[in-house]
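Forgive a beginner's question, but would it be possible to get a protein, spelled out as residues, together with the matching structure tokens, please?
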Amino acid sequence: MRICFIKSLGAVALTLAAAATVTFALEPPQNIIVMPPKDGGYTLVKAIESRHSDRTFVDSDFSSTQVAEILWCASGENRENGGLTVPTALGKKEVFVYAVTKQGIYKFLPNEKKALFVNKGDFRKDAGMQDFVGKAAVNLVYVIDKNLSGGKTDADKVRMGAFSAGAMSQNVALFAASKGYGNVVRGSFDKVKLGKALKLSPSEEILMTQSVGPIAPAK
């Protein structure tokens, strides 16, 4: 697993930058091309030291570039063979990241290097039960497509998908720490309501969510 904000990766960093261009679609047909972050702000060790959960979000909005950076950290393509920034069970890549923003909802397709517009509108409050969820600049929703999983049973598929989702959320948490953003991983949400907003198919299931964004100054 590679973390996107590590400095001084030499030739490897050049390979990642070349392979990991991400397209973040505001809404069809407008696309914004961005590169993965070249500087997370902290070293890896400092980011690990600084990582913590925070719920003191201020109502804010990220630019498309900021959202694209976060999505790439979560599960972006980081090498020419199509590998991602996180491991996936049996290489199935069955877990997708949805970004719920103030403008709308987007589904990240790592190997297509773009996030597809899914639904227009501010659905942030629908991404969780707590009040702070509606203030976070972006709520990430980790979704497994069980049709793509290599597991034999539903329980196996969810368990295997959870490995990837956990790795994705930690990548995001470390990147958030390096940028001074708040983040918190959550398991409290209305599956039916959120699934409807995401326009999920019967084979897709929400595994977990994560709020990310600017936070109130410490008192």
Notes: Helices lie at 11-19, 44-50, 64-75, 154-179, 191-198.
